[in-house]
Amino acid sequence: MNPFETTISIIIPTHNRMHSAKRLLDKLAHQTYPKHLMEVVMVANDCSDGTIKMLQEYKATYKLSYAETKGAGPAVPRNSGASIANGTLLIFLDDDVDPCNELAEGHVTAHENNNTVVMGYLPFAIPAKPGFFKKNLHTWWENKFYKMSRKGHRFTYEDLLSGNFSISADLFRKVSGFITTLTCRDDYELGIRLINAGADFAFSNKAWGYHKDEVTDLKRSIKRKREEGRIDVRLWRMHPEVLNSLQRAYRENKSGFLQSRTALLMIHCPNFTDTIAKNLVHAMTLLEKLNFRGKWERLSYKLHSYWYYRGLLDELVTKNELNGYCTYVPSTPAALKEIDIDLEDGLEKAEALLDKERPHMAHVKFGGEMIGFTPLKPGAENLKGKHLRRILARKLSRSLMKTLALKEMKN
Q: How many whole angstroms separate alpha carbon 34 and alpha carbon 106?
């Protein structure tokens, strides 16, 4: 999209965080993007803390409008904001984001066309004296964005993070916006539909803003983990062709939780194991006081995993259903597109072919000799030329070197 010509709407859902919302409105006054092309739409969802009065009295240097909604989670206010937005590009921000002055400009310049979806960099604002939980949360966020920033990254639906992303208004309406029946993971669900619609995902480290999360702590994180388990089952029922990270781990034999004693007790004596899990949170406080970070992290991982499985069991009820979910193998799509590429013709030609065909899978050859293939990856964007070198380096380098050596020996 052309910078300084595209009209944009910055949509911000908020719920009883008047001071954070006002801080964000103040920051947006310093955007480098032309004010006459920018509007801000703040949607107060079931607010009772004076947010509406603040919005009524706020004197903005840009066009500001607001609306009120009632609904579980931010999907309802996001959709409401999009419905009254006038911009051709929609930028969604959470109300706890502290944006850089170039955030809007960064989003606009990262859009190649109306089919692009841009994730902005959202570094976690770590406090001056962070505890173990905040340090680990910071690491998680940085790893997430580091993967997206790497050359040749193949985007998946799990890369769509609704706290700082942009999408054309036409594409948002084409896929009917966010689903409003989920209490979390609504951004993941939208990501699935966007990828299925052929959207091109991109990452911009220029469209950045600090994520100033002031409410999430260990107890809140564990509680959310159980909810994520419930919602992941519902997502699976809605989109059975897509495997999540847990199902992929079982498929690759990287998880054996279902065979553990903890799983057996959880399934047959959930009240007993819940009590133990709740009490172990207090043990984490002691481990932090003793500065045993390694042990704290291992226990944190186990507790989060436990409550995630409890969420799964809330929806799946029986051991057989849970086992079926974890080991589920989706059927092959009827419209699967596979192509052959031969590296002997040159990397550039192979990359151009991938860009032209955009297949789900590719059989990689060299001089007619099979090197390997790119496995089917439901929930990920179709293959592009930019993915090839990364795939060769990470997955097929050994096979390629062996084939080249054999050909050299024959010559």
A: 13
Q: Which residues pair with residue 91 across a beta bridge?
A: 10, 166
Which backbone phi and psi does 38 adopt, to 5 degrees? -125, 135
Kindly give the residue spans of alpha helices, DSSP state H, lying in 111-185.
Answer: 132-149, 169-174
DSSP string, 47-77: --SSHHHHHHH---SSEEEEEEE--SSSHHH
Question: 405 pLDDT exceeds 80?
Answer: no
Asked if 324 and 336 count as a contact pair (C-beta separation under 8 A), the reply is no
Q: What are phi and psi of 334, to 5 degrees?
A: -65, -30
Alpha carbons 135 and 141: distance in angstroms, whole number: 10
* Cα–Cα nearest to 43, from 82, 16, 14: 14
- CA torsion 310-312-313-316 (nearest 10°) is 170
Q: Which residues pair with 293 in a beta bridge?
A: none
Collapsing DSSP states into helix, strand and coil, what is residue 206? coil
Q: Per residue in 87-144, pLDDT tens? A: 999 999 999 999 999 999 999 999 999 999 999 999 998 888 889 999 999 999 999 9
**C-alpha to C-alpha distance for 400 and 255, rounded to whole angstroms:** 30
139-169 burial code (b ≥16 CB/10 A, e <16): eebeebbeebeeeebbbbbbbbbbbbbbbbb
Query: Phi, psi at residue 363, to the nearest 5°?
Result: -95, 120
